[in-house]
Design brief:
Blueprint: E1 2-9, H1 15-33, E2 35-41, H2 46-52, H3 58-67, E3 69-72, H4 86-93, E4 98-104, E5 117-123, E6 133-137, E7 140-143, H5 149-165, E8 170-175, H6 183-195, E9 202-207, H7 208-217, E10 224-227, H8 229-243, E11 250-254, E12 259-263, H9 280-292, H10 296-312, H11 326-344
Parallel strand pairs: 1-2, 1-3, 3-12, 5-10, 8-9, 8-10
Antiparallel strand pairs: 4-5, 4-11, 6-7, 11-12
């Protein structure tokens, strides 16, 4: 039996609940496919600070450095003050330059936009998320937008490589170069240069505000969206609405050495501990992780079980129109995963 060491960051709010549900499902799928997981659990954020006086303890950094793969639940980020985003800090620390977010409908779940299948590839380290801001004089704050040819070229190559390998036909670069002529202009030049090496992939450009309108009117015109950091953050939330919301959409932060897989939603402290949270987003993130560590059989088993639960529509959480809790949903996925084994017995 193959063993994978995975750094697990349960998070806070609903994080521990959805993380526990996902771990139980992965372990069951792994047991059926000859895969074992060794979980290295670590705290991050306010809870970690209470116990270690560090928002990201050095043991967590060391664990990710050693394991090179982490699965992360939501961690609360203070608004308008407080400590820096744990997500952004980890991305910078491990140079996780590519944020990868597939947006695809789950079977049986009715939405206003059926059959959506989009990929958002977002530059993950630059732009306004560089966090370079200061108060010039009282009442005047300046924030610096950072765009480099290295970062733009690297993320463009990632997007086009993905499109080529997975048979995607179009890449749209999303920008605001009509206003941000130097920064977004540089991003576009890099995207154009990279596109020349991929003649089989159709290359297009849309201004970000127009892209928002176009997505709402007709998301099917898009295939791969290639974006700077801020635009990608906004568009990925917008696109999640096509398939049922943030509780369903997975996310991956990828670098050359390490990867962190995370749900893209928040910590929802208002429902924490109430057995109400939907673990789907983190579970689909874990499926991305399984593919990343080259365990496609286990990944397909988990995804098939998840999709069967949605297809039947009997045991769903309240956010998607059901009445079940987190544990009942996880149990339903576990039961659904047993079906292929029973059929082939």
């Amino acid at each position: 039996m193959k063993t994978h060491k995975i750094t697990l960051i349960p998070g806070d709010g609903i994080g521990p609940e959805v993380s526990s549900a996902v771990v139980s499902i992965l372990e069951a799928a792994g047991a059926a496919t000859g895969v074992r997981f060794e979980w290295h659990r670590h705290l991050a954020g306010a809870e970690a600070f209470e116990k270690t006086r560090e928002y990201i303890p050095k043991e967590l950094y060391e664990s990710i450095e050693e394991n090179r793969v982490a699965l992360k639940g939501p961690v609360t980020t203070p608004v308008g003050g407080g400590f820096a985003s744990i997500n952004v800090t980890l991305r910078k620390k491990f140079e996780l330059f590519a944020n990868f977010r597939p947006v695809k409908n789950l079977p049986g779940l009715k939405t206003k936009y059926p059959d959506v299948d989009l990929i958002i590839v977002r530059e993950n380290m630059e732009d306004l998320y560089a966090g370079l801001e200061h108060e010039v004089v009282p009442g005047v704050v300046q924030a610096l937008k950072v765009i480099t040819s290295k970062g733009s070229t690297r993320i463009a190559k990632f997007a086009f490589d993905y499109a080529r390998k997975h048979g995607r036909k179009k890449v749209h670069a999303i920008h605001k170069a009509n206003i941000m002529k130097l920064s977004d202009g540089l991003f576009l030049r890099c995207c154009r240069d990279v596109s020349l090496g991929f003649p089989e992939v159709s290359y297009h450009e849309h201004i970000v505000d127009n892209a928002c309108m176009q997505l709402v009117m007709n998301p099917y015109q898009y295939d791969v969206l290639l974006t700077e950091n801020l635009y990608g953050d906004i568009l990925s939330d917008l696109c999640s609405a096509f398939v049922g919301g943030l509780g369903l959409v997975p996310g991956a932060n990828l670098g050359t050495e390490c990867a962190i897989f995370e749900a893209v939603h928040g910590s929802a402290p208002d429902i924490a501990g109430k057995d109400m949270a939907n673990p789907t987003a983190l579970l689909q993130s874990a499926v991305l992780m399984l593919h990343h560590i080259n365990e496609p059989e286990t990944a397909e088993r988990v995804q098939a079980g998840l999709e069967q639960v949605y297809r039947e529509g009997k045991v769903l959480t309240k956010d998607v129109g059901g009445t079940s809790g987190t544990k009942a949903f996880a149990d339903a996925v576990l039961k659904a995963m047993e079906a292929p084994v029973a059929a082939g017995a």
